[in-house]
Amino acid sequence: MSEILTITPQAGLDANDDPLPAGTPFTLRGLVAPTNTTVQPGADGNLDEVDFTIYLPLKIKQPSGWTRTSALLTNNFTITVRGQVCIGRAREWDEGGRGGVEVLATAKAGITL
User: Fold this and answer.
1) What are the residues whose beta carbons fall under 8 Å from the beta carbon of 22, sequence distance 6 or more?
2) pLDDT digits (tens, 9 = 90+) for 58-88
């Protein structure tokens, strides 16, 4: 069953390494799966642990028409899953118009966003 997730684009840091204001949050529906340990989806090499693997649709219908989900995700974003704010890493896969977006989400206590 899909769950409601909140995505918040993060603007990064200013010249003093202070966080810039976050973008406007928006919600999506996605499937939340148990954790996996891949640093980059499908990549070999160093491993770290993530709290959630989330599957989002390839495209989302908006008032202006269909938009690729990956176009809504910035390089830096957080995703709120089951009440936990997580740092997200996304990868799109497209198999001739079928596919989706995989998000690896890590919740770290004490992080500053």
Assistant:
1) 8, 9, 10, 11, 78, 113
2) 999 888 999 999 988 878 899 999 999 999 9
